[in-house]
Amino acid sequence: MEHDFWHQRWQEGRIGFHLKEVNPLLKTYCSAMKLPARGRVLVPLCGRSQDMIWLQQQGFDVLGVELSGLACEQFFADPASGEQSLSLVRRRDERFEYFSQCGIELWCGDIFQLQVQDLKTVNAVYDRAALIALPAQMRKAYARLLCAILPKPVSVLLVTLETVKPEPEHAPGDGAEQGPPFSVARSEVEMLFGERFEIELLDDQPADRPGTREKVYCLSPQSTYRNT
């Protein structure tokens, strides 16, 4: 999607993808990420997700990457996001604007600007709304990016939506996808991430949208994979 699309969605408040409460699937399957004490979690395309607050409350550090500056400002304006007596630290460079408070960092900018050195201290990835927010070609680019720059031991907790009976039926990438959010089948998850990760389906349940399933995957690093 073009940057302007997402900026407009946030400006107009059309953010139906935003959950006002912590995703129960994160609470149930957080342990699958095998995070160490004080581990650091990458949350791509994080918006102003309450899931980041929950992760911080469990003792983890959070690195969120978000395109919308409005989303970042709204997150830290929410009293639930941290101790308001502690000042919000903000700085900027040529790639990102950085927001930091109480163990949560938000990097505002284009996620495709991330580099290997940015993620050296990341222990896991939690993706509830990034992969399914992207059309097919961008999903491929996003998966290539993660596989290229994540440290080798990192696991991914991935939440997707899958249309059970698409009508009419379209193949991913044929220009007729309906979204966001986009339907992502298990076969596509395996195609995108199977070279680097072992893929385990943890949960499969009806989603709020009729005709769709919400699926939770744990992507565990393959011992034979080498970053290049």
Q: Evaluate the radius of gyration.
A: 17 Å
Name of the CATH first level: Alpha Beta
Low-confidence stretches: none
- The span between the termini is 28 Å
How does the SSE layout of this entry go?
Elements: H1 3-12, H2 24-29, E1 40-44, H3 51-57, E2 61-66, H4 69-77, E3 89-92, E4 97-101, E5 104-108, E6 124-127, H5 136-149, E7 155-163, H6 186-193, E8 197-206, E9 212-221
Parallel strand pairs: 1-2, 1-6, 2-5, 6-7
Antiparallel strand pairs: 3-4, 4-5, 7-9, 8-9
Give me a quick take on this structure.
With 228 residues, the protein is an alpha/beta fold. Helices cover 24% and strands 25% of the residues. It has a single domain (3-221), classed as Vaccinia Virus protein VP39 (Rossmann fold, 3-Layer(aba) Sandwich).
Main features:
single chain, 228 residues, alpha/beta, Rossmann fold, 9-stranded mixed sheet, 6 helices, 9 strands, 24% helix, globular
What does this 3D model show about the protein?
By secondary structure, the protein is an alpha/beta fold. The protein has 6 helices and 9 strands, in the order ααβαβαββββαβαββ. The longest helix has 14 residues, at 136-149. 35% of the residues are buried. The model has no long low-confidence stretch (mean pLDDT 86).
